[in-house]
Design a protein that fits this description.
Distance between the termini: 17 Å
Shape: globular
Number of helices: 16
Helix content: 25-40%
Number of strands: 17
Strand order of the largest sheet: 6-5-4-7-8-11
Radius of gyration: 23 Å
Number of domains: 2
CATH class of the largest domain: Alpha Beta
Largest sheet: 6 strands, parallel
Strand content: 15-25%
CATH architecture of the largest domain: 3-Layer(aba) Sandwich
CATH topology of the largest domain: Rossmann fold
């Protein structure tokens, strides 16, 4: 390579990293909060995104206000809510997150939940939440602040005989299965006492407001943290189908295998005869993908009645992350295309597809950026090394890019939470020189890919992306960029 090409690749690496971090910085929780709800005296105004005006909730009719915040963004979401509400009588709450905030409110109990598998604090937080919700009456308003990661951080088995070690093994089996998030969360919903709508059922009569920061596809918002406040439309029959499809039953602890094989395994709360075409129709708020508002009510039956007094607001999503990246790339004079179609694909298939798409689209553009949001899947075999789905994707791309030496192109893949798998990296950047440089450092890139051990390779090359915990979880961002100037 010439010094000129070295410099060009360095520029692309820096530009891709800047677009990722800039897009993430622009996803401001406080600003998103203020676009959705506002406190005016004793009135909570829901600012509907279609411009139809605020939908008000009279706070003076509630003697108590409970707040339950869970997930990777629980701390920042809670801080914004408490700031906007000011001091209100009867306010109590629970916060369960992986990284506890430095500034804590005496009205809130804080729990440091585990991720990517639960810990004892995960159980303690769930028990504390259920105990609090038992006190909720018609004069209680409950805010649920739900972000990604809550499926692990906040959990309690529906069967009280199942312990923490068995629950950890259950979560580890799901992580390694390669199943898409919807299937994984169907199992979690039917396993847990606080998922699949059961947290809402615990406060049957109360008014409930769920503020969502999803790390799942927008068509599947009830999968966010396994849907603790959403009616669940998956079924026990689907649970059995998923266990069989991914051959999971033999990999589960005996007590959990017996639990799922019970003839009287209870259905999760929800109308099982109805399936949402995109979003559940009681989700009042904007649909940024289709550009339409979903407002019509569904007929609620049985336990669905517990959700009649539920309000759901989408604060931010992967859509915002992608659009922020698009804006930054366009301002830098890149022609931009967005392709999210490989969401939930196997990482190898996604790498091959996006590189083919990239080469096809960039032909007529001097500077080109292909953006892809969502997540890819990895099916683990044996004992994995240090890595995650983003570094695995980047390394798969690097092996294909090695076939195009001398080209000025680069690939970035990173998680918006700042954590990729079992590493402290958010992801990595790859280019046509990655494989050659790795071999020069003594690595075998094919073996690193096979062993799910991409992190040491990218770290040695200086191509890891390290942000630290971001208090966000808006799924992953992939950027494929070229510059032929």
């Amino acid at each position: 390579m010439t010094p000129t090409s070295d410099s060009a690749l360095d520029f692309l690496h820096s530009a891709a990293t800047d677009f990722f971090t800039g897009a993430l910085d622009a996803c401001n929780i406080a600003s998103a909060f203020d676009r959705r709800i506002r406190f005016e005296g004793n009135t909570l105004q829901r600012l509907l995104p279609d411009g139809s005006g605020p939908d008000n909730i009279n706070l003076s009719q509630y003697k108590r206000i409970f707040v339950i915040a869970l997930g990777k963004a629980a701390g920042p979401m809670l801080a914004v809510l408490l700031d906007r509400m000011k001091r209100r009588k009867g306010l109590r709450g629970i916060c369960c997150t992986k990284y506890l905030p430095n500034n804590r409110n005496w009205r809130i109990r804080y729990f440091e939940g585990g991720h990517p598998v639960p810990n004892q604090e995960s159980f303690n937080a769930a028990r504390a939440a259920l105990a609090m919700l038992k006190k909720a009456k018609k004069d209680t308003l409950i805010f649920f602040l739900i972000s990604g990661g809550g499926s692990a951080m906040f959990d309690l088995p529906l069967d009280p005989q199942i312990g923490l070690d068995e629950t950890i093994a259950f979560h580890e089996s799901l992580i390694a299965s390669g199943a898409p998030i919807n299937d994984v969360n169907t199992l979690r919903k039917h396993f847990s006492a606080v998922k699949g709508g059961r947290l809402a059922i615990a406060a049957h009569d109360a008014q409930k407001v769920s503020l969502l920061l999803p790390d799942v596809p927008l068509r599947s918002l009830d999968a966010l943290s396994s849907g603790p406040t959403s009616p669940d439309h998956s079924t026990v029959d689907e649970v059995h189908e998923i266990l069989a499809k991914y051959e999971l039953s033999p990999k589960l602890p005996p007590s959990i295998r017996v639990f799922f094989e019970r003839g009287d395994l209870p259905e999760s709360p929800g109308n099982k005869s109805w399936r949402p075409p995109f979003l559940p129709k009681f989700y009042r708020g904007g649909d940024p993908v289709q550009g339409r508002k979903v407002t019509s009510a569904i007929t609620l039956t049985g336990e669905d009645e517990a959700f009649r007094d539920s309000v759901f607001e989408l604060l931010l999503s992967s859509h915002d992350l992608v659009e922020n990246a698009r804006t930054l790339a366009q301002k830098a004079d890149y022609y931009v295309a967005v392709d999210n179609s490989c969401d939930d694909w196997d990482y190898g298939d996604a790498a091959h597809y996006l590189l083919d798409r990239f080469h096809e689209l960039r032909k007529n553009h001097r500077r080109f950026c292909l953006i892809s949001g969502g997540e890819v899947t990895v099916t683990l075999h044996g004992t994995p090394g240090a890595g995650g789905r983003n570094q695995q994707f980047a390394l798969a791309c690097a092996l294909e890019l090695a076939q195009h030496p001398g080209e000025m192109l680069t690939v970035l893949s990173a998680g918006s939470d700042g954590i990729d798998g079992n590493t402290r990296s958010a992801g990595a950047v790859a280019d046509p020189t990655t494989v050659g440089r790795a071999i020069a450092f003594g690595f075998d890139p094919q073996e690193s890919l096979r062993a799910f051990n991409a992190c040491p390779l990218f770290t040695a090359l200086g191509d890891s992306i390290v942000t630290g915990p971001t208090s966000h979880n808006l799924r992953d961002l992939r950027l494929l960029m070229s510059d032929r100037s």
